[in-house]
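Thread: quick sanity check before group meeting

JM: Hey all, I'm pulling together slides for Thursday and realized we never actually wrote out the predicted structure for the chain we discussed last week. Dropping the sequence here so it's in one place. If anyone has concerns about the input, flag it before I start.
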Amino acid sequence: MEAHLLEWLNLSIRWVHMITGVAWIGASFYFVWLENNLNRVNPRDGLAGDLWAIHGGGIYHLEKYKLAPPSMPDNLHWFKWEAYFTWLSGVALMLVVYYLNPSLYLIAPGSDMAPAMAIAIGFGSMIAGYVAYHFLCDSALGKHPALLGAVLFILLIAAAYGFSTIFSGRAAYLHVGAIIGTIMVGNVFFTIMPAQRALVKAIEDNTTPDPALPAKGLLRSRHNNYFTLPVLFIMISNHFPSTYGSQYNWLILAGIAVMAVLVRHYFNTRHNSNKFAWTIPVAALGMICLAFVTGPSSTPAAAVAVVNSNAETFSQVNKVIQERCSTCHATKPTSPMFSAAPGGVMFDTAEQIRLLAPRIQAQAVATQTMPLGNLTQMTQAERDLIGAWISQGAKLN
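JM (edit): ok, ran it. Output follows.
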């Protein structure tokens, strides 16, 4: 029952995280699009620009003030809770998935790191990441956006490399995402919202607002916009072991992050010009190249020789799978961590094993991300045996 309740807790938090994340990302995309598409030609006095749009059967007219209207409107809509609840639900999800079972999901297989130390590094990195980011933005480097972006990228990929040496591949990716997510919500809480409150207070007090604070808030909002696509990839990455499971997972993350930022930049600028249209084919080509270079290596010749010389290979493979994999992947898992087979993957019969051979190859042989945390102690020889059997056609007899 404990495993069943934990699964539903995971589901509930993940669902909240997804719902609030969609709301936050949608608002971020919309307002950056709005800012980029304002008509700034001869705006009405006091306005920075306006925009006409049609959606949902209606026509809208939106105006942006250069700084603030003469008086506060009766109803002013704020956008903050989406960001806060996305971060809070993300931290809760990290706690449920990684920190409650650090030996299973967090710590790299074979590592002797204490669970408490791993958790401290994971959570501490989120705070340290935001502090470092905030310091760099407020330093002289902040006046050079391109250079600042390059430095931030290098630091995040350095963090990804460091995490990959102590955490599992999945946890390494998710903690990079957690750092970025903390930076994003920190921008909202510590910069964007204070700037907006100061603007509103100045209007209420009938004083001249400080233009520097809204400008700073707009800049941090743009940072959040470019962070979004890399974070979205990280959120779905645990479904793709060929990325996080690779020995070069940090480089793969770097490549995908660059492509994501390029694509985001195209969408941010495409209405003004198409000079960044080249980013789309470049990103597509980059994905093709990554798919090629991350392909599984060939099966060791020694293992192939074992298969060719042994007519009872499947019985050996089946024995390994039943001992190392079926504690979780069975109709009735014997592992106390699961009340049902994860992902619906079951190895109860020979035919199920044969049909799932490509997934076994990807996760147990090529990337070695399964068994989780290698708790069942699958050996390299056993992985080679399974890989050789699959390379020879995954025959049952």
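AS: nice. The chain has two domains: 2-22+78-293, 301-391. Residues 301-391 form one domain.
JM: adding both to the slides.
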